[in-house]
Amino acid sequence: MTQESPSYHVVNARLTEIKMLIEDLEELGLVTAEDLRRDRRTRHLAERELSQVIELAASINIHIVAALRGRAPESYYNSFGELARLGVIEDEFARRLQPSTGMRNVLVHEYMAVDYQRVAATIPLAIEQYSEYVRQVARWMAERWEAEQQ
């Protein structure tokens, strides 16, 4: 099995989209559980933006892992650990990101009633963590791209 290179353009486009979604979350400002309960538009924006950030990151993870390992990770949760094992993101950081996939599942599939307190608490955490995710993945891709061009 030959190792392929992840597409710089695919990863970069998804990272750009994550950055825009993070900006949108930042524009929402401090959102409380009561804000989410009371304001349907704010709730829908926050939930959609959070789920999309996590979905895009997982799709980046899957793209990179599949290219380098020849197979996709077993789950979104596992995709972060596999990305760390490849040296794309830091191991401890991957462990901090993994639980966000549970929030994405709740928001997308509505496995249970959405806990607005949890969603409100997740927004600033997602802004912080996924901004760092973008930095780490972009740095790895730039280093890889530069090495391939030599």
From TrEMBL:
An annotated GO cellular component: toxin-antitoxin complex
Protein name as catalogued: Uncharacterized protein YutE (UPF0331/DUF86 family)
UniProt cross-references to PANTHER family, sorted A to Z: RNASE YUTE-RELATED, UPF0331 PROTEIN YUTE
Coiled coil segments of this chain: none
Keywords tagged on the record: Hydrolase, Nuclease, Toxin-antitoxin system
Taxonomy of the source species: Bacteria, Bacillati, Actinomycetota, Actinomycetes, Actinopolysporales
Leader peptide range in chain numbering: none
MF GO annotations: hydrolase activity; RNA nuclease activity
Record-stated family: Belongs to the HepT RNase toxin family.
